Amino acid sequence: MRMYNPEWERIKAFDYAPKVKDLAFDLSAGEIPADHGYELFRELTRHLPWLAEIPGFGVHPVHGAPTGRNDNLVINKRVKLVLRLPVERLADAAALEGRTLRTSADEVVVGKLKERPLTPYATLYSPFVVTGSADEAVFFAEAAAELEKMGIKAGMICGRQRKMRLPEGEVSGFSLMLHDVDLLQSLAVQEVGLGKYRQYGCGIFVPHKSIKEVSID
């Protein structure tokens, strides 16, 4: 369920025209590796090669539940594959419906899609942001510098460290909460993202109801 935002009318008053939207696909039951960023991107570009050429294209992490017996995640009917794309490429991505994604864990069939507009919210969260440093203090400074370069003013709360395997080696990053973000700037952060590897699920921000939710991480 989309979170209610009482300030949405104020945003619409600015005649905001979305440049980016999320495209959410149903998935068949199955499993996917917990560390699935690269494998998922490889499969998506096997079916839709043009995705690799889209600047800022992002793939949300797939939020399945741990199996408890291996390093995979269980995909049930509530789990979605979500792509963050420029609005002019949404129709092209519809060709993904009915395709089979093959990973080291299982084969999963992509189902029907639904568009999701970005929602302005003063608190945003990304489970995995990569700036290039595995040191928390350096990471924090690099993330702050990138936000400043974008002209974004926000409070920051760094969460736990995460790692991801890529063909060139392992990369590290941290979860990150942004709070007290201006609503128009909130949309900008969601459109552009933060750090590296958005095609692998990193640096993609979504709204959160409260700063307290960082404790869940």
Commentary on this structure:
- With 217 residues, the protein is of the alpha+beta class.
- The protein has two domains: 20-117, Alpha-Beta Plaits; 124-216, Crispr-associated protein, domain 2 (Alpha-Beta Plaits), CATH 3.30.70.
- The protein contains five helices and twelve strands.
- It has helices at residues 8-12, 37-47, 90-93, 136-150, 183-192; strands at 20-27, 30-33, 58-59, 65-66, 72-75, 80-86, 100-102, 107-117, 124-129, 155-166, 169-179, 206-207.
- The strands form three sheets. A five-stranded antiparallel β-sheet has the order 3-6-1-8-7, covered by helices on one side.
Summarize model confidence as the mean pLDDT. 90
**Which secondary-structure class do the elements indicate?**
alpha+beta
Contiguous uncertain segments of 5+ residues = 213-217
CATH topology of the largest domain: Alpha-Beta Plaits
Helix content: 10-25%
* C-alpha end-to-end distance: 21 Å
Could you spell the SSE succession in H and E letters? Answer: HEEHEEEEHEEEHEEHE
How many helices in DSSP terms? 5
Oligomeric state of the chains in view: single chain
Total beta-strand segments: 12
Largest sheet: 5 strands, antiparallel
CATH architecture field of the largest domain: 2-Layer Sandwich
